[in-house]
Write a structure and sequence with these properties.
By secondary structure, the chain is an all-alpha fold. Helix content is about 70%, strand content about 0%. It is found in: Cell membrane.
Length: about 290
């Protein structure tokens, strides 16, 4: 028995190791396929314009920084202007979503009022509604308010709890908090708003961080909404500024666009890398797996 024991355990260990090698090989291959467009764009940003679409190599023959230098000032203003515009809109959207969605989530999770379940179901149904369905109606409203060519259509709705996904995420999280905390605060004389602000809001941190990160990334990458409402050159955001490098009727500045696209990735990568663990924690604590 002693001779057969090690062999019996060695075979499963070898099979397990082989499966791990195959799994890692498949994951690495998938990662390379996913990251190839980014590597191609990074390579193109260091190539001369006549080599971008003629050379298949990811390694530039004669790397140049011309695309970065010309792209930074190529639109008449420093590209930092468009980065700051995008960061300004993103910051306002993050504040709006965090405050308004947490308030709405608290009402659905903790308060009793007529039609709560119906309204919660209607709110969930709006998540299945394509954004394009309401686009024309929203544009008509904002045009009548005189908000076109300002940031107001991008920011103000976020303070009215229009993001059903974030409300649902926070409702799930609040339902997991002990109601005894509310009762204790109520005994101390707190009203609903004080319970929300002093008890629930601090405990919502994982869900709030998740909301803030997704709000930032989705707003930073949003092109269609910003294209509809913003046309003033000094108000352009990053997606709109990148679009101006391309001209359907003339010569497009591909090299400058690829170079500035690499630059615009930096804020998103920094946010994601710094807060990626909190994203996982927030989704895990809310039960949305």
């Amino acid at each position: 028995m002693s001779a057969g024991g090690p062999r019996a355990t060695a075979i499963p260990a070898t099979g397990l190791r082989s499966r791990r090698v195959v799994t890692h090989a498949v994951l690495i291959l998938g990662a390379l396929v996913m990251i190839y467009p980014l590597l191609w764009m990074l390579s193109a940003s260091f190539k001369e314009p006549d080599q971008i679409f003629t050379s298949d190599s990811l390694i530039p023959q004669d790397p140049v920084l011309t695309n970065y230098l010309q792209g930074w000032v190529g639109l008449g203003r420093p590209f930092s202007t468009y980065l700051l515009n995008s960061l300004l809109v993103c910051a306002a959207v993050v504040v709006g979503n965090v405050l308004s969605c947490s308030l709405a989530a608290y009402a659905f999770a903790r308060m009793s009022f007529v039609g709560r379940k119906v309204l919660f179901g209607v709110m969930l149904a709006t998540m299945m509604l394509p954004h394009h369905v309401t686009l024309i109606a929203q544009y008509a409203i904002f045009r009548d308010l005189g908000w076109v060519d300002t940031y107001l259509p991008l920011i103000v709705p976020k303070f009215l709890a229009v993001e059903a996904f974030f409300i649902f995420l926070m409702v799930q999280f609040i339902r997991g908090l002990p109601r005894e905390l509310d009762d204790a605060a109520r005994i101390d004389g707190c009203g609903q708003l004080q319970i929300y602000w002093r008890v629930v809001f601090p405990l919502l941190q994982p869900a709030l961080v998740t909301t803030a990160i997704f709000s930032f990334i989705w707003t930073y990458n949003d092109f269609l909404t910003q294209l509809i409402y913003v046309s003033d050159p000094k108000l352009l955001t990053v997606p709109l500024a990148l679009r101006t490098f391309l001209d359907a009727s003339g010569q497009s500045q591909w090299g400058e666009m690829f170079a500035m696209s690499i630059v615009t990735l930096v804020p998103v990568l920094v946010v994601f890398v710094v807060f990626q663990r909190r994203i996982i924690d927030g989704i895990a604590h809310s039960g949305m797996k």
